[in-house]
Amino acid sequence: MGCVNSTDQHAKLRSKHIDEQLKADGERAAREVKLLLLGAGESGKSTIVKQMKIIHETGYSDEERKQYRPVVFSNTIQSMVALLRAMGTLKIDFKSPNSVEDTQQFFSISQTCDEGELPPDLASVMKRLWADPGIQECFMRSREFQLNDSAPYYLNSLERIAQPNYIPTQDDVLRTRVKTTGIVETHFTYKDLHFKMFDVGGQRSERKKWIHCFEGVTAIIFCVAMSEYDMVLAEDDEMNRMIESMKLFDSICNNKWFTETSIILFLNKKDLFEEKIKRSPLTRCFPEYTGANTYEEAAAYMQLQFENMNKRRDGQKEIYTHFTCATDTNNIRFVFDAVTDIIIREVKCSIIFAIKDGSSIYIPKDCACSNGHKDATSRAPPFQEAGRILPFVLMINVVHGRHFTLSYDNRPENVVMYIRRRPIIFT
């Protein structure tokens, strides 16, 4: 008898432990948000990820920022190389009599110095070249060749970044450019939600890797570089970058796998777009455009072009659009706060518990159940088959965070000890 009691107590303790673990896992699953960052190459996805570290984590430590020194130097030197090569391609002459000699000196020093270094003599030559009116004219025509957006930022900061004790600032880190290959996963917590953000390479060669991230996605953030409406792809000089982004957005927005997935559109690089639209007409990308080349009209037209691609815009699916500047921390903080509210409001999920008959499940008092379960706990009915009580699966369908329905399932294939989270459709 004593052995039987001991066995019963052990079974009860084990059952209690399993119930507690199921409850904990269920609560954790309900708070998990999976965000997929998509968009063409150089649209600002990786900068958004960096902002999440700054805004929702502890930012970049001194040691971490030091590790970006070689990247800053490399980006700055690469920008000058691109400008000097474009001078020849665009047939622009130097205006300073010493610039030809400075160009020769630049290539000589940059090819012999260690990678990721910026010697003082190289920095001096670059400052003189950047000041040449011919280089400035070339920069104003940067839509005609490939140049990092960060080029003027770093080249205007040569005096500072060339200092021996230079440590990149947070802003310096945000503007670094390293091509994303593969998948970069970032975790952070905000508003009691656990975010998993996936950044994947945007170049055509990287897109085949996206499919591995699609399962269980809560929302997609699609980034578009507004300022690239008059530019071509680095990997295809016949394809306009904006048209490429629109084709990619169409394939994501109207994909059958994302019919119930929230799509958040970031029209990014609004600062660069606002400056460029003054001198480069929107008709370079949209020949049918008849509006003014002002930020307000051109941006509104661009937004409409993307939102009109949504084939389910008749109330079935909404595109949430935000104009962003990924290098502006305050802007991204404000926008992501709004994005999180959208996610909280729109998220729909199923949490499935496999538990024993007659067990109680906890329902928070501030929740409202749509099919009659109003108590703080709900006791499930026993299921019987061939004279014996079966275990069952309890499904809680959570809608908009605080409303749910309860259903029971005792099919043998569904009675397993697990918790699963998946998107569902409510009618």
TrEMBL record:
It holds the Pfam family G-alpha. InterPro entries: Gprotein_alpha_I, Gprotein_alpha_su, GproteinA_insert, P-loop_NTPase. Keywords: GTP-binding, Lipoprotein, Magnesium, Metal-binding, Myristate, Nucleotide-binding, Palmitate, Transducer. One of its GO terms (biological process) is adenylate cyclase-modulating G protein-coupled receptor signaling pathway. SMART domains: G_alpha. The keyword GTP-binding applies. PROSITE patterns: G_ALPHA. GTP binds at residues 42-47, 149-150, 174-180, 199-203, 268-271, 326. One of its GO terms (cellular component) is heterotrimeric G-protein complex. GO terms for molecular function: G protein-coupled receptor binding; G-protein beta/gamma-subunit complex binding; GTP binding; GTPase activity; metal ion binding. Mg(2+) binds at residues 46, 180. Belongs to the G-alpha family. G(i/o/t/z) subfamily. This is Guanine nucleotide-binding protein G(I) subunit alpha.
